[in-house]
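Section 3.1: Structural characterization of target chains.
Under the original work plan, the team committed to producing a structural model for every single-chain target entering the pipeline before any wet-lab resources were allocated. The record below documents one such target. The sequence was received from the expression subgroup and is listed exactly as submitted; it comprises 296 residues.
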Amino acid sequence: MGDDSMNRTGGVGSNHGVPAIALNDGTAIPQIGLGVLRIGDDEVSGVVESALELGYRHIDAAAGYDNEAGVGRALRASGYASGERRRSLWVTTKLRDSQQGYDSALKAFDDSLRLLGLDYVDMYMLHWPTPFDWRSGETWKAFDRLRGEGRVRSLGVCNFMPGHLERLHRETGEWPSVDQIELHPTFQQRKAVAFCREHGIAVEAYSPMARGADLDAGDGTIERIAAAHGVSAAQVILRWHVENGTVIIPKSVHAGRQRENMDLFGFALTADEHDAIDALDGPTRAGHDPETFTYA
C-alpha cells in the first residue's frame, strides 16, 4: 500500500495534508481533486467555490462538460485565477474528441483558456482515444507546442488502454504524464494500471465509487470496514484509492460531501481490509468502452 511518489511538501497539492503525486515531467498533482462532470454551467460556480473554500486545490474540468465558463467564474470570484493563489491550484481541462487534430486542437485550447479566464492550465488531456478515428499523434504535436509556449504544464490522456498508449508513444516518442481511467473496486483495470506504472504514467480514477454503486459492493464488505473505522463507505473506497497511489476526482455538489471526500487521512485500512477490497474486482464497467466510444 502507499506509493513512493507521494509527498506532502511544497508546491501544488500540499494543502490540508493532501499528498501530491510526482509526475514524469517534474510537476506534482494533488492526489484529491474535484470532478465537475454533469454539473450545469450555472451551478458549477458555487460548487467550485465551495470546494476551494474547503481546501481543494485540484479542479478537473473538460470542454465537453460545457461548464468551463462557470469554473472560470468561480476561480475569479475566489481569487484563484491569478497570482500566488493561482500557483497553488491545479486546473485540468480536456479537448473535445470532435476537435482532435493539430489546428483544431490549438483553436479549441484557446477557447478553453478564454472560458476559464486563465493564462495557462496545469494539464491538458485527450478525452478519449477514438481508435476508430485515430488522431492522437497529430493532436499531441499541438499539445507539445502548447507546453512549449508555457500555456500547459503537463500533458495527459483519458481512457487510453495499453495499446493506445503504445501507439501514441510510437508516433510521438512520449508517454503521457497521467492516464485518467474508470477505476473502482469492482472494476480495477489491473492490466492498464500495471502498464501505466511500468511506464511512469500516473493513474487517475474517475467514477472512483462506480457512481455510487460500489458503496454496497461485496455483500456489505465496504460497509463493515466503514463501521470498524467510524467512517463512511465512500471514505473507505476513497482511502483504498489513496493507499494505492491513485489520483482521485470524486464529484459532489454538496459541501458536506466535499469535506468528507477529502477527509481521508485520519484512518488507514488494515492489510486484510485492503485485500478484501482488492477481492471485489470484476469485469463490468459503469461507463463506456474506449474502443467504441467518443464524447463531445
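DSSP finds eleven helices and eleven strands in the chain.
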